[in-house]
Specification:
Helix 2 links the parallel strand 4 and strand 5. A 5-stranded mixed beta sheet has the order 3-2-1-4-5, sandwiched between helices. Helices cover 39% and strands 20% of the residues.
Length: 171
Amino acid sequence: MLNPPHRRVDDHGREIPELGIDYASIKEGGQEDILTIIAMKGRESKAVFANVVELKGRGIEGTINRVLESIQRLGYKRIVIKSDQEPALTDLVNGIIEARDEETIHEHSPVGESQSNGVVERAVRSAKGQIRTLKLALQARIKRNIPLKHAIMTWLVEQAGDCITKWPANH
């Protein structure tokens, strides 16, 4: 291989795991409500996490705690968090770095190169599709419409990430 992929390694030659993170908005036709989610994907583990957020950035305390829980579920001590240069994401990642005891490195994707954070971009697309699928299935089952701001959506968004992780479509 002429140009092998670049990998982050620590002082002992071990790879440092990477977690991509990005915001996404879900809006349905005919509704004014918008559901904002944060999606994360571990490059090595392929695990996908999705959570509803009320505000972008550090927002409320629960946002940082949910991201920390996701990182803890992966079992990583040192980690690289990769995001684009959106100010709200930078604020959130800075909050995560302050809240963690372990080393956390923030890496920005180059401006105008969304492909460089393609791992999380694909995770966002998959999460939005899985959320739509789960919501439509639940609505058909209960024979009622579920508004985006309904409390069940918080659970449904988290389940979407878990479904993608546990039952990947492309094996």
